[in-house]
Amino acid sequence: MGRMQRPALSAIAELLKPITWFPPMWAFACGVVASGLALEGRWPVIVAGVLLAGPFVCATSQAVNDWFDREVDAINEPHRPIPSGRMPGHWGLYIACLWTALSLLLAWQIGVVGFLAAVLGLLLAWAYSAPPLRLKRNGWWGNAACGLCYEGLAWITGAAVMAMGQWPDGRSLALALLYSLGAHGIMTLNDFKSIAGDRQMGIRSLPVMLGALGAARTACVVMALPQAVVIGLLIAWGQPAHAAAVAVLLVAQAGLMRRFIADPLPRARWYSGVGVPLYVSGMLISAFALRGVVS
Q1: Which pTM does this prediction carry?
Q2: Strand partners, 138
Q3: Between 226 and which of 110, 178, 214, 290 could a Cys-Cys bridge form, CB atoms 3.0 to 4.6 Å apart?
Q4: Number of structural domains, the chain?
């Protein structure tokens, strides 16, 4: 019998999709900033948390999704490691399980709250892609799970590790949840590229359910409303300058949204590239505003 074929390191790296690690790492950093606590003496746990958010939990979610989406990817993205054959046999599943275990081991080192947040994030990652739940079959539930995992839980973990494992301030939790809600719209943008395969495989993403125009309008509203609430909260917390900065970013997004809605199918990727950075910039500004409130 021949030796079992193993995937190349390049295929493993592609499976784990490093480009997707930025949002949760950014959200973790926002939680760190929002804590209002000094960074001195906390750098080892901060670095561990950044690694947990991106190269571990997020990478796990990508591996899980690619394994359970291999039939859909064979239609939408046949060049991906599993449908292309560069990730042979069950290696995709093996890597997903290994990265889950490694994520839990790392999470255990950063405190109880951080560990619990990581556990919830991993559960959502598996529930999103794997049967029997496979939340991604419905765009409302699946995108909500992704938004919470990518933004809210990472923010909460960042704030928790700074507070020596204590739950974050209620205002920090509010911002984390609001930006998680807005991230639902970001996840919808990502679904435009896979409409054909999703429709064929019975995955009811918002572009499939609502059509391209309906999904584009919904994504923009879902992204804009939480930011409007954040602006109101920052004003109420006595941070008008930060509120004004977030408002400027929201106005800029509104202009880009109008262009996106006018022709959503070819412009979804474009809006992800130009509009989402404005959204996440507002996250960091809000975190600094909260740092001024709690310090």
Answers
A1: 0.92
A2: 204
A3: 178
A4: 1
